[in-house]
Amino acid sequence: WNGIFAAFPALQSIPVMDTMVQGNWLVYILAIYVFAPITEELCFREIILPKLLQNLSTISAIIISATLFASVHLMTGSFITVLFAFIGGVIFAACYSLTKSLTATIIVHIAGNLCEFVWYLITQTSITIQLIILVAVSCGTLFLLWILIKEVVKG
Fold first, then answer.
1. What digits encode the pLDDT tens for the residues 7-28?
2. What's the rounded Cα separation, in Å, for the pair 8 and 153?
3. Which helix or strand (DSSP H or E) is residue 77 part of?
4. Reported confidence tier of residue 2, pLDDT bands at 50, 70, 90
5. Are 129 and 155 in contact (CB under 8 A)?
6. Which of 4, 52, 117, 129 has a CA that sits 20 to 30 A from residue 23's CA?
């Protein structure tokens, strides 16, 4: 994995994750694109948001949970990451409030994290690789959309 991602300097500039995974890109991918969305959604949407909704309006609960979610991302040291985490927190909380589905919210969270990954790949590669990434992301997006629709229809 290290050889594959060595061509993408932007992916190597995350000191917190570098320390956590010690250069193992498989661990990095699993941590950021699988485990983090699941654990963050369990914590913020399954535990914190319902508690806030007991005493606050939906909008207030969403804003507070998004602020808490963004504050967890302060360790990155990047204002942009914290800003995107806040926006993502609003989107994820709204998704959970509308669907009452943790699975749907986790899917949206994973898709959001993958968008960041794809952005780095696209900005670091040639046009041929960009087209391959675009096709792969399109297929993946359609698959996630299919799962999301199934989950919403089921729920």
1. 444 444 445 444 554 566 677 7
2. 39
3. none
4. very low
5. no
6. 129
| Token reading at 76 | 């990155």
- Helix (H), strand (E) at residue 34: none
Q: Is residue 68 a contact partner of residue 48, using CB atoms and an 8 Å limit?
A: yes
Name the amino acid, one letter, at 7.
A
Q: Give percent helix, percent strand, percent coil of the chain, each to the nearest 5.
A: 90, 0, 10
Give the closest residue to 25 by CA, choosing from 3, 43, 40, 45: 3
12 burial via Cβ count (<10 Å: 0-12, 13-18, 19+)? middle
Half-sphere exposure for 67 (CA within 13 Å, toward CB):
7
Cα distance from N-terminal residue to C-terminal residue, the chain = 38
Please name the residues in contact with 154: beta carbons below 8 A apart, sequence gap of 6 or more.
none
Residue type, 125: T
